[in-house]
Amino acid sequence: MSFSRRAFLGAAGLSALGLTGKAAIDAFALQPPHEPASTPAGTRWAMVIDPKKCLEAGDCTACLDACHRTHNVPAIDNRAHEVKWIWKESFEHAFPSLQTDYPPDALRDKPVMVLCNHCDNPPCVRVCPTQATWKRSDGIVMMDWHRCIGCRYCVAACPYGSRSFNWSDPRPSIAQITPDFPTRSKGVVEKCTFCEERIARDEPPACVAACHAKALVFGNLNDPESDVRSLLRSHFTLRRKPELGTRPAIYYIV
Amino acid sequence: MFMFEKAVVGSRRYWAWVLGLLVIMGLAFLAYLRQLSVGLVMTGLSRDVTWGLYIAQFTFLVGVAASAVMVVLPYYLHDFKAFGRITILGEFLAISAVTMSMLFIFVDMGQPMRVFNVILYATPSSMMFWDMVSLGGYLGLNAIIALVTLGAERKRMAPPRWVRPLIILSIPWAVSIHTITAFLYNGLPGRSFWLTAILAPRFLASAFAAGPALLILLCLGLRRLTSFDAGREPVRKLAVIVTYAMLLNVFFILLELFTALYSQIPEHVEHFEYLYLGLHGQAPLVPWMWTSSVLAVASLVVLLVPPLRRRESWLAVTCAMVFASLWIDKGLGLIVGGFVPSPLGAVTSYVPSVPEVLIVLGIWALGFLMVTVFYKIALSVREEVAAS
Fold first, then answer.
1. Is B286 exposed, middle or buried (CB count within 10 Å of its CB: 0-12, 13-18, 19+)?
2. Which ipTM value was assigned to this complex?
3. Domain count, chain B
């Protein structure tokens, strides 16, 4: 039987196509269970932040320190490459659509704590090409640092600047590594995970636990008796950029 | 394989050119190895401007790839015979440009060894997934079409009938690759610079100007350097296509400017302000953007006056101006401009690093090498057929 080089290459090409094609079809069937193990059904985690209480505490950075220590977030001096899960942003930058020429003294040039909004309708999840970021049924927007390909599409999609990319290996910039939480490698995106590992142990998020001023309150939005719901009932609150339809789960008391 | 033997015989000049390209590619490869080991910290990118030269080149080159349709459509759908000699050039240009754009995505990835996660965890809600599908499909279509039609030409036979549906399919497919590339940016809340329905049409218009302009330059270059003459007619027709597309492109940019500047909504105005005037004292792109504008207007003057456009030396300069103008607009301003100011109002400028530029040049060199080798093969086949 004669089998020309051209025919062989053709057959080899088709076989390769067939093999990858099968993998692609299998991939559609493969949807990993993203459900949290320990959260009761019907839970929707949320946070209410009271910037006034926070400001009364002065230059306090307890929440930020606790978060970044707990999660091995590197401290990088260069603003261009910094990684942060929770940080202080000026009121004007956190709420650009609420600009006023005459802000109250309590807010003028004052920082507010910002973090991932754990949106109900997260654009970052929509754009991620590998489902390395996804929304759990309890509302937490999660990250899989082992699946992330580092395309930074989610960074472009997040309207809150809540996502950080590891421009280099973060490990040398971690003062002391907390052994019970993973470190990340270079080339992946990371952000606040609402301390899902602590919630699973029935502990509040690290930032909430560290805040002496009780400026951060965490709880179940679906439970009418929860602390967050009672604060929302008794105060007027804002969410960042509500006009974008992302429906953040972080509320700010004004 | 693939008549590759034609590419390994050539003049001294041919080999010097190929060697030069290989040297640039080698240097770029070294730079990429460095990026692989230290990370994207090596580039000029930052948390505010997370995409830069790589993604911008990708965007620009998808347009060049899509523009092959501007020769394929008249030739195959309207039986416009004059393009018969250059259709294959358009297809090979498309193959090279798609390969380059895919490589630009690849070098932008933080974890390139995980690239197959895009297939393994295929996510139809992500425009990046669809971009991969459309670019891969377009590459495959053009590779098959070019290979089969050239193979048939070599045997002095008509191409097999089954390839025609693929050619017809490649026409809307070309439009789709650039539309989906626009959709990558188009649907992001909080990025007002890209949140405009005219982005995809604008992408297509600039693509259909830049691609044919490059093809004209390639045809004129081939006439000077080789025995291949595309003829006057196809070059003139291509020039007409460039004229219409460039007019539309400038018109679309003016529409964008009107919407932003007349509405005076700050988050729409600020991006244009940053690009053309500078914002908060930062204006690195201002000279580039004005150069782009001047080149666009100047090229239109020549293109719109037929006696000027018909002079081939003028046309060559004009096509170079069109290409440069659109490269700046799309390969520089459009991506970076969308990131400044950031959604939190930060004005962070982006200046690519030297190794980053080297990697960009390396991928361009690879593209030129592909075009060189493909054109060498195609023209050698033609010479062979003509001689026998």
1. middle
2. 0.92
3. 1
